[in-house]
């Protein structure tokens, strides 16, 4: 059973892990404790090709200084050789006597570190702060298992399901509290996706902003899908991060490419056509619907054709939460028959006329 000192060290290791980048590798933190419980060293993984958290911490110690120590790590020490060697071996060779980790490594390639440590006579304990560690790497696990990022599809609508009035005007359907929530969620995403139709018609910046218009510290990577050209002076070209342009309607190909770049969480905010394309393709792990208590009528539906010819083919969702935001409501829903994905086969094609609200 982990001691109080080890649990405190694990909480510190989780803080350290969050300093590392989200990407192809998990965020991992490590703390090395002396036999008396003093902190000898700390480390975290700084990205693909760099030292893993355990090795980063051990590198700060003189040879032999870790002998008899306890390594507290947020993820099971790996047992494979990639760009770097197995962390389990590094801990054994350093003379570490005990390893406490929060979460079993869920990948086939890297798992088995705990068994290797035990076989070498190291005392191993798993479990403290497991839920926090799982939440930290949840998106990375989903990416590793499915080969694509988690996809959230968002739209704003009137009470009668319209995204805009018949003249096309849509600012603002929802109130400031809902818009503030959207920007906070943008900041949590790795990438924000819109279509070329949105870029041409609405000229969105695709940034995450505070109430006063200033940029939030974390900015999603802007991704534009579609075959139309984006104007040289488009607002998205002034984004603090260089936009990615995909001259295709193949959403599977776009997500596969984003996965190769380590994008774990995608926020789709491209209007009815693009949202419908993701839903039609079965690529929405989570749906965010901001509902305003207004009636618009007309033909500007928030969602178009999603490949449902009859009620028997309806895409069933499970409502995860309903949250009041000022006068509006945020409904979060996920596919009813899907396995839990972080948060969340028809050919995937995206249209050209999307709008950001």
Poorly predicted runs are 340-357
Q: What's the count of strands?
A: 13
Average pLDDT works out at 88
- What is the first-to-last residue Cα distance? 51 Å
Fraction in helix: 25-40%
Q: DSSP strand (E) fraction?
A: 15-25%
Largest sheet: 8 strands, mixed
| Helical stretch tally | 9
Rg (CA only): 23 Å
Structural class: alpha/beta
Q: What is the ordering of alpha helices and beta strands?
A: HEEHEHEHEHEHEHEEHEHEEE
Tell the overall outline: elongated
The neighbouring-strand order within the major sheet is 9-8-7-10-6-11-13-12
Present the secondary structure layout.
Elements (H helix, E strand, L loop, with lengths): L3 H14 L11 E5 L5 E6 L8 H6 L11 E6 L11 H8 L3 E6 L9 H7 L3 E4 L3 H17 L3 E9 L17 H13 L2 E5 H7 L18 E5 L18 E3 L4 H10 L4 E4 L3 H9 L5 E7 L24 E9 L2 E8 L22
Parallel strand pairs: 3-4, 4-5, 6-10, 6-11, 7-8, 7-10, 8-9
Antiparallel strand pairs: 1-2, 1-3, 11-13, 12-13
Helix pairs in contact: 3-4
